Every structure is written in C-alpha cells, then in structure tokens.
Amino acid sequence: MVFPVGGQQLFVGEGDFSLTRSLFEHHSLPKDAIISCFSEDLTEEAAENAEYLSSAGISVITGVDATCLEKHPDISRHTFDYIIFNFPHTGHKMKIQLCRTLLRNFLCSASSLLTAQGQVWVTLCAGQGGTAGEVAPRAWSDSWQLTAQAAAAGLLLRRLEPFRPELYPGYRPTGNRGRQSRTFHTGRGVIHVLVRGAPLPLDRLADRLDAGGRALLLDGAPLPLAQYWLRRLPPADDSLAALIVSRLTSAAAAVRRRLLVRHEGRLFRAEDAVFESAGDDSVYHPPAYQLDMSFWLDGGAAADESFSWARLRRALRAVLGEVLVSLSRLDEYTQPDSGRRACTVRLQYQDLSSPLSYEAARRLHVQVLPDILSHALGVQPR
Ligand SMILES: C[S@@+](CC[C@H](N)C(=O)[O-])C[C@H]1O[C@@H](n2cnc3c(N)ncnc32)[C@H](O)[C@@H]1O
Q1: How many domains are there within the chain?
Q2: Per the CB 3.0–4.6 Å rule, which of 133, 220, 247, 359 could disulfide with 160?
Q3: 57 CA distance to ligand 1 middle (Å)
Q4: Same domain, yes or no, for 306 and 262?
C-alpha cells in the first residue's frame, strides 16, 4: 500500500521530507499537496529536499504544529481529503502519555479540517497503536491507544495497512528535533486509516430534554438509547411528532438509518431509504472501556423476588443496546451496622458504529446508568 492518490492532501510532522520526495518521484503525490514539518530549523538534507519539492511547485511549510492546524494562517484556509502524519512522536523517551496526547490533539485538530469523506492516515511503529490488528499486538495499557484517541476526535478506524518502507526509495526515517540524524525502526509499522463518525449525542440529548424535548433530530444514537430518551419525553409533547434518526449497523456492516417517530404516545418506526449506504462501513477495533458501579440490593425490584441478574441485564440492554458489551458481578458487600447489602458490577462499553470516547462512556455510566437502575428497577446506586 502506498499513500493516497489524488484529493487535497496535507502532510504534517515530516522529518527531512525524504518520504514526500519519494512519493513525488516514484508515486503520484499531487502538485497541490501541502507538505509541512514542525521544525523551523532544517538540516541540510531536509533543506535540500524541501527545495526540490518547492521547485516542483509543491507547497512546503515549516514550523507547523499538527495539534493546532486550524489556527495556522495558510493551512486553515483549506479542507483536506487526506491528512497524513507518518510516525508522530514527541521525542521524549518512556513518556507514553505525551505521545497519546500528541496523537489525540493532532486527531482533534485534523478532524476539524477534514472534508466530509476525508481520511486521516497515521503511521505508527509496531505495537504503538494498541489494536489487535498488529503482527505482535502490545497490551492496550502499554500502547498509544489509538482508537480511544481517535474516538475523542470523532474518528473511527476504518482500515489497517502494513507500512512498507521498500515502496519509498530514498525515504530515510528521521528522529525528532535536535536529533535529526537519528533514525528509528519502521519494521512492522502500521498505517491507520481513520474516518469521521457521528458520536453519541449525549450533550444534545440532555440539552433538548432540559429545554422541553419537543423535537429531537439525532444522528448517530444507538436505537435503544434513542428509544429510551424518546419514551422519557414529557407527555405534553405527545401532540408533536418527535423524530430520532438512529444509525444502526447491520450484520453485513452496512449502515442503515431508521426513522423513529413518537406520535400520540406511541413509537413508530420506518426504514428511511434516503440514508441507505452501500459502502464498506465496517469499523476496526473500536475502543472498549470497563467501568464499575455499586448499588444497594435492598430497594425496589432488588428487594422482591422478581429481581434477577437476567432482569438487570435486560433492563440495561434495553437502553444501552449493543453499546453494553458485557456485564459481570464483581463483589457483594454487607454493611456491618445496618446489614444492608450492596453489589458491585462491571460493565464494558463499546460502540461498533460511532466513535465512543472514554469521556462519553463515562458520562453514559454516571448519567444514564443510575437513571436506568432507579427507573427500571427501583434500585439505588451507592
Ligand atoms: C519519529 S519522527 C518522524 C518524522 C517523519 N515523519 C518520518 O517519517 O521520518 C516524529 C516527528 O514528529 C514531529 N512532531 C512532534 N510533535 C509535533 C507537532 N506538535 N506537530 C507536528 N509535528 C510534530 C517531530 O518534529 C518529528 O519530525
């Protein structure tokens, strides 16, 4: 796999420009591509390659911070079909958190300049991405957690490709500022291709409900979550049709959208062919988050015989749908003085069709889950 052909392209974080020079000489780097590097201070090789590209009519810009592209006076005037960062790194050794932050901030910035169908390409060294698609996957906790950083930027991983340096004659991997002469190991590197996704609309949901929840038009809500909120609209809104457009991922991974209408207290559902999408919309290695919750076992349904783990599971599934991947019982606890019993459960959240960031999963956990527990089961969170 070589880099994309055509479209408006932006390269960030270039080292000595040997990759883009190779793409120009041996592949088909478009003449209107913009090539940039972080440093203002170029080595001899970098200056020579930059000069070569500029004289071929390609725009080369130095001193570009990939984490705030939208603030750059020249770059921010464009939108891009491809934004490409080859082997990002802050240059700090053993500071994985700094690299995660660089990745997250770059992806957030890049997504703001992406066309609707645009893609971000990030090449990482072997194991750094943390997906199971690697030749030798690294523990998630020891990785840059690429899909979680992408989700925070509203992006989904669509494809993984091996980085094959032999396709780019003349490319010389170049280390960070101050260590320009140092190279690094690109073997088993992985290109991650990311696209936009519609995030869970938790904020908009909450805002709309606070404002009276008259009409909702939501893009990207999992259907069960949408149904849940729709049922909670005040009865006064029955005379108005409330619409929720919910995106569903079918087994064939083709995205279908459904129109859900509440009218006079009843839910109606209709396939909306207008939104039918035939493309390959599969999402690779979506991030998953484990969060724990404790609740008292002596209130509501938990106090009578009808309470069961199956019932709890059903209530959670009805609202969270496929976003809830697993539910397991961790611990039971009896308060010594009162004899009250409590229980701790572990939930795993994952969304196969929208970018689910850690923050969104946490909001689901602390805002929506307690509501489900008390409304559906009368159980009080601890
Ligand atoms: C490991 S080097 C890779 C260089 C080059 N892309 C290559 O493939 O040889 C990491 C690069 O990330 C760049 N970088 C680090 N922080 C950056 C930032 N905030 N914005 C743009 N580039 C950054 C460094 O300047 C350095 O060139």
Answers
A1: 3
A2: 133
A3: 23
A4: no
CB-ligand 1 contact for 13 (6 Å cutoff): yes
Q: Is the CB of 179 under 6 A from ligand 1?
A: no
Q: Last residue of some domain: 275, 300, 321?
A: 275
Buried b (16+ CB within 10 A) or exposed e, 274-308: eeeeeeebbbbbbbbbebebebbbeebbbeeeebe
Q: Are residues 78 and 43 in the same domain?
A: yes
Domain presence at residue 298 = yes
Q: Give, using CA atoms, the residue closest to atom 27 of ligand 1.
A: 15
Sequence-ordered list of residues with C-beta below 8 angstroms from that of 80, at least 6 positions apart, any chain: 7, 8, 9, 10, 110, 113, 114, 115, 118
Q: Compute the C-alpha angle 115/117/120, nearest 5°.
A: 75
> Contact, 44 vs 180, CB < 8 A?
no
Task: Indicate if 152 and 42 belong to the same structural domain.
Answer: yes
**d(Cα 33, Cα 9) in Å, to the nearest integer?**
5
> 253-307 pLDDT, tens per residue?
222 333 344 444 444 443 322 222 334 456 778 899 999 999 887 765 555 555 6
Could you tell me if 114 and 237 lie in one domain?
Answer: no
| Amino acid, res. 120 | V
270 assigned to some structural domain: yes
Are 265 and 302 found together in one domain?
Answer: no
Query: Domain boundary at 275, 297, 312, which?
Result: 275
Which residue out of 67, 90, 93, 180 has the highest number of ligand 1 atoms within 8 Å of its CB and is therefore the one to mutate? 90
Mutate to test the pocket of ligand 1, among 174, 177, 181 (most ligand atoms within 8 A of CB): 174
Give the domain range for residue 107: 9-196
pLDDT, tens only, 92-102: 888 999 999 99
Length of the chain: 382
Whether pTM exceeds 0.85: no
Distance 302 CA to ligand 1 centre (A): 55
H or E, element range at 350: strand 341-350
Residue nearest to atom 14 of ligand 1 (CA): 13
Give the 3-state secondary structure of residue 220.
Answer: coil
Strand-pairing partners, residue 36, are: 61
